[in-house]
Specification:
Helix content: 40-55%
Largest sheet: 2 strands, antiparallel
Number of strands: 2
CATH topology of one domain: Arc Repressor Mutant, subunit A
Strand content: under 5%
Distance between the termini: 77 Å
Radius of gyration: 22 Å
Organism: Klebsiella pneumoniae
InterPro entries: Phage_lambda_VrpO_N (IPR006497), WH-like_DNA-bd_sf (IPR036388)
Protein name: Phage replication protein O
Shape: elongated
CATH class of one domain: Mainly Alpha
Number of helices: 4
Structural class: mainly alpha
Amino acid sequence: MSNLAKVIPFRPSVSVVERQVADIDDGYTRIANELLEAVMAADLTARQLKVVLAVIRKTYGFGKKFDRITNTQISGMTGIHHTHVCKAKNEMIAMNIIVTNGLAIG
């Protein structure tokens, strides 16, 4: 009997990934330093942070203080299910991080 083993090479697959560089020519969101510092200092969960950043993008990113933003829109931007978006948004409204103006938020 022979105790020979077959050696199978396991080489990792290498793929070329193009590096992307952020460029303001592609657009940017102008935000007040005070607001950015307040968001950084707030004790937010990951979901809450994603939601507030989406609200900032949909408001300040388009030169508005308030806008009607649906939970589905925020869900599409963040990848968070719309029911969790609703919960996070309501938590931040209660914390006065997000404010309402009728049906609009900002």
